[in-house]
Amino acid sequence: MQNKVADLIVILGTGGTIAGKAAQANDNVGYKAGEIGVDALVAGVPGLSAFRLEARQLAQLDSKDMDFPTWRRLALAVEAQLAREEVRGVLITHGTDTLEETAYFLHRVLAPGKPVVLTAAMRPATALQLDGPQNMLDAAHLLNDPAACGVMVCVAGQVYGADQVQKAHSYRVDAFRGRDGTVLAQVEEGRVRWLSRALAAPQAIGSALLPAEGEAWPRVEIVLNHAHADGRLVRLLAHEGVEGLVVAGTGNGTLSTALEQALLDAQAAGIQVLRSTRCDGGPVAENGRGLPAAGGLSPVKARVELLLRLLGEPAQS
User: How does pLDDT run across 160-194, given as a tens digit for each residue?
Assistant: First the structure.
């Protein structure tokens, strides 16, 4: 029997602004996200007819409301689609607000060899000037490129790795950037121009690690260093039973004396801690004072990392 040609792109819709609808075409902020189904989105991009596609609606939510059950369903759906011999890759339409967290989650859980591309839009599907259709078309071209692999984000003609991408502007259509300016590629009139090599994918954690439907996930929260940070919030969270804490420090993950001591106390009590930075770029180095550094991960991605570490720990008897 001949092997099937891997030329099928599966599109998984999750909602977001790209599927949003406003009452007026000139309203780019007063819209409701996730109103338009993925089939209608695909039909609205004539250039996609050149690709062999399947479209499936996985969720219809505003990504500010992204949750663990949806993450679980998405990871399982992506894994199942990539296992099909005829599938070239998976395109995920997503909201912009938590796109970077979902991308990093899939990157760490699945670490796929085939390409998985997330795309989004800053303007709703009813806007006068749309960015969503072009982003979807660019993402399809990226998925079709022979060099594409792993989890990437494609928006405004730019391609970012899941470990580096972050939303950096609240309103512009080119709202995303790579941490420290890292860009993997640019999509120009249907052609992918690679600027740098993607980082090697990590070892997949695997979807079997994820809690079963309805089971609880670890509680991991983010706290911030700022003027007069006294550590009180850390103590309150510890009292409430938090299992992990990410601190967004200043500069190289620096912390006020009081906040640092509260975090050291929490760590001594069994709460896992990761130290990141509230700066937009640059890694956090180990400082020898006992709170592990998150390296180049932003605070929200450090939270995903810590969440997965806690899921990978054996249950305490």
Answer: 999 999 999 999 999 999 998 899 999 999 999 99
Based on the domain organization, do 66 and 184 belong to the same domain? Answer: yes
Catalytic residue among 14, 96, 98, 119: 96
Q: What is the C-alpha separation between 151 and 90, in angstroms, rounded?
A: 9
The CATH number of the domain holding residue 154 is: 3.40.50.1170
Domain total of the chain: 2
Q: Which of 17, 98, 119, 126 is catalytic?
A: 17
Q: What is the CATH number of the domain that holds 246?
A: 3.40.50.40
**DSSP per position, 275-315:** EEESSSS--B---SSS--B-BT--HHHHHHHHHHHHHHSPP
Annotation marks residue 96 as catalytic: yes
- What token pair was written down for 66? 């992204």
Q: Are 43 and 169 members of one domain?
A: yes
Q: Which pLDDT value is given to residue 200? A: 67
Domain carrying residue 93: 8-194
Active site residue 17: yes
Q: For the residues 243-248, what does the mean pLDDT come to?
A: 98
